[in-house]
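User: I've been going back and forth on whether these two constructs are worth ordering. Before I decide, could you fold them both?

Assistant: Sure. I'll take them in the order you sent them. The first construct and its structure tokens:
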Amino acid sequence: MILRQAKAEDAAEVSTFLNALVVLGKRRLPADEDFVRDVYIGHADNIACSVAEDGDGTLLGIQILLRATEGNPYGVAPGWGIIGTHVNPKAARRGVGRKLFATTQAAAEEAGLHKIEATIGAKSPDALAYYDSMGFETFASDDEKVRKSFAVR
């Protein structure tokens, strides 16, 4: 598995697997190429946007780390990191998320972040379990979402 920073050219393939997650009921946000390019890969507050690919170049997942700014749409404290993780359904349970997080955690440390926040759908057991296994702790929840934070070392 190869980990690297995402490029604009990755937007089409990422969009394809995000749309597969929509069909499976595991994603509610937009999944089109423009969204991937603008909100994930090319976001002005990006610290890192990493992808994992297998030996033939197929994208297995993407993980985004943004620096939270004042008035961000997620309500994350300014100066914290905002994380998003999406694994290609064809690559589920292959350690993609764990490997991506190692890269993201290093980027967070280098950027001087003290906390990273994930906002997860309350009815997304796979995503909730993933963030728990990475060491995130729940600090707020309601019927719609669960907010978890990770203390960067």
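The second construct, handled the same way:
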Amino acid sequence: MKKMKQLLFLMTLAGVLVGCGNKELFDTTYTFEYAMISLPNGDIVEGKLKSWTDYDGEQLQITFENGDTYLVSSMNAILKTKK
């Protein structure tokens, strides 16, 4: 009976780990200093970062040092460590 419980536990654990796909189990913090954003009208906004936040899905909220804040798709943004 003990071996059956262990097998059931291992099968459940394997199912949970496989079900995560390519999503990380733990959030990781990254440090970036600069950002470039492509706006819908074709303009490019770039500058030194004050802060940035990632949300579920592909949204990023980027705040520049001048106080401007943008909520953009990650497909329209580049975060860099060096200028």
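Notes on the second construct follow. The chain has a mean pLDDT of 84. The two ends are 62 Å apart (CA to CA).
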